[in-house]
Amino acid sequence: MNETRRDRDAEGRARNARPRDGLGRPLPYGTPGVERQPEGVVRTPPETLREAQRLLDAGMPFHAHEVFEDAWKSGPEDERELWRGLAQLAVGLTHSARGNTGGGARLLRRGAGALVPFAGSAPHGIAVGGLCDWARELAGRVESGPTVDAAAEAPRLRG
């Protein structure tokens, strides 16, 4: 019998322990990587936005997506689509920077679509209209252009 061992976290859940690069791609075991974001962190909206902006500015949209995902899973029901849309924008930027331009463009547009209902209210000071414009413009560029630099393309979350 050929038993394959899986990496496990401290609670015994399957979790790949391979190091990751700044765009979340797995690296070979033993290679220095970028520290992962802890999962399940409950932050206030300002803390979420501050941490996500820091990661986006550092060219780490995959990690920013994880911060948004925590807010999406722990936040109030009426804000879940807001945080999910922001997570999709971050993943869209991640795919675009990895060279998956078709997937990146789709996720950027999907994230912008999820944010549209929030455009009139600027929840938590988020520049929703500007983010939607940024996402659509970037989606158009990445479909027909080269891989983008995640840090250079990082959006401003607040106006």
Question: What's the topology here?
Answer:
Layout: H1 45-57, H2 61-74, H3 80-98, H4 101-115, H5 128-144
What is this structure, in a nutshell?
This protein is mainly α and 159 residues long.
What does this structure look like?
- The chain has helices at about 45-55, 60-75, 80-100, 100-115, 130-145.
- By secondary structure, the protein is mostly helical.
- Helix 2 runs antiparallel to helix 3 (about 80-100) and helix 3 (about 80-100) packs antiparallel against helix 4.
- The termini are far apart.
Note the gap between the termini: 59 Å
E-strand count: 0
Q: What's the multimeric state? A: single chain
Number of helices: 5
Reported for the largest beta sheet, the result is: none
Shape verdict = globular
Helix-strand makeup class: mainly alpha
Q: Report mean pLDDT, rounded to a whole number.
A: 90
- Beta percentage is under 5%
The H-and-E topology, N to C, reads as HHHHH
Uncertain regions spanning at least 5 consecutive residues: none
Q: Helix content range of the residues, please?
A: 40-55%
Report Rg. Answer: 16 Å
List keywords for this structure.
single chain, 159 residues, mainly alpha, 0% strand
